[in-house]
Automatic annotation (TrEMBL):
Lineage: Bacteria, Pseudomonadati, Pseudomonadota, Gammaproteobacteria, Pseudomonadales
Name of the protein this chain belongs to: Nitroreductase
Length: 248
């Protein structure tokens, strides 16, 4: 169904706010998916809604490559072949610097916490590099999701367009939740941008932004019980009123 952007809400205000809030809050990074197919029409529907996200002067900087079936398998195998060979993968560089060069608190603390929580659920001990590598390598198989999404952007665009892109990615993930689907946004693909570009015939003027898994969550998988902590509003918000600063 095509959405009229000026239409009135299809449900009451209370139901509307609860539904939108649920879709945002229930979005999590899922790392184990069922093989249940996602119809192309459903994927198109998600992207059709996501395109209405905010974008500076209506630039709409996103480009999306959807990989399923044999195309997804070929891409995953091409990346895994290199990822499993340190002599080929160790010197590869990300498409751009997603993470800081030097980690500082509180960011490094949050990163470590979610990492050890995930490994703890999976029974991977600290220092078990083989199992850590194997778990990380599941990224490149889209955690067995039936749909992989690869996002690119025109290299001529600047940081502001990446802000727009973030809103587009969020819209994709929230729209997926509205259809009882789950996602996992993945910066892990950045290291293999050359492999991805070659496999999908992505022109050189396009830069890889990230990948994403899309499908139905395997609710029986222990890793999908991971729920990350988020800081309360009071920790990151300052209200300015009457020349005074207050926190919630």
């Amino acid at each position: 169904m095509k959405m009229n952007r000026l239409s009135k809400p299809p449900v009451s205000s209370e139901v509307l706010s609860q539904t939108v809030d649920w879709a945002i809050a229930s979005r999590r990074s899922i790392r184990a998916f069922l093989p249940t197919p996602v119809p192309r029409e459903e994927i198109e529907s998600i992207l059709d809604i996501a395109r209405f996200c905010a974008t500076g002067v209506n630039m709409q900087p996103w480009r999306v490559h959807v990989v399923t079936g044999e195309a997804k398998t070929r891409l995953s195998c091409a990346i895994a072949e290199i990822d499993n060979n340190p002599s080929l993968s160790n010197n590869l560089e990300d498409a751009y610097e997603y993470y800081p060069r030097e980690w500082t608190s509180p960011y490094v603390d949050r990163r470590r916490k979610v990492g050890w929580e995930l490994y703890g659920l999976l029974g991977i001990a600290k220092g078990d590099k083989q199992r850590m590598h194997a778990q990380h390598g599941r990224n490149y198989h889209f955690f067995d999701a039936p749909v992989g999404l690869i996002f690119t952007i025109d290299r001529v665009l600047k940081e502001g367009s990446l802000l727009d892109y973030g809103m587009f990615l969020q819209a994709v993930m929230v729209a997926a939740r509205g259809r009882k689907l789950h996602t996992c946004p993945q910066a892990a693909f950045l290291k293999y941008h050359h492999v991805i570009s070659e496999a999908l015939a992505i022109p050189s003027d396009q830069m890889l932004v990230c990948g994403m898994s899309l499908g139905y969550a395997d609710e029986t998988s222990i890793e999908n019980t991971l729920v990350t902590d988020r800081e309360p509003v009071s920790a990151f918000t300052t209200f300015h009123h009457n020349n005074k600063e207050t926190t919630p």
